[in-house]
Amino acid sequence: MTLRSTAVTLPVANPLDLSIYFRVNDVDTVVNGTDRVIKASIDGGTTWATGTITEVGAYGSSDKLIRADVDVSAQTGSSFVWEVTTANAKEQQITQVASVPGY
User: Fold this and answer.
1) From CA 25, how far away is CA 92, in angstroms rounded?
2) DSSP category for residue 32
3) What is the pTM of this model?
4) Domain 2-101 adopts which CATH fold?
5) Residue 65 pairs with which residues in a beta bridge?
6) What is d(CA 24, CA 92) in angstroms, rounded to the nearest whole number?
7) Domain coordinates in residue numbering, the chain
8) Across the chain, which distance is largest between two alpha carbons, in Å?
9) 13-51 tens-digit pLDDT
10) Could you tell me the end-to-end alpha-carbon distance of the chain, in angstroms, rounded to an integer?
11) How far, in Å, CA of 97 to CA of 55, rounded?
């Protein structure tokens, strides 16, 4: 499955990196970078950069907070889109997303 956001305009063009936070409930055991891959684009989805995923901690009784740090310094633009791809038939639920552009 691929879940992709709609494009949003960043307040400042050409950030160097982005941090995207996800509240997830991994029903199955999920390996970040293998069973879940997170990418971002600041040129509206023409070019994608793969993020490094870090588990931040527990969020409630069954969810956890993860962060994807994405280096978008090779891209130009201000049209931000993120994408999560799940693989290997691992059931996972994404319930909330927040992103923070770096400058």
Assistant:
1) 6
2) B
3) 0.92
4) Immunoglobulin-like (2.60.40)
5) 23, 57
6) 7
7) 2-101
8) 40
9) 999 999 999 999 999 999 999 999 999 999 999 999 999
10) 31
11) 14
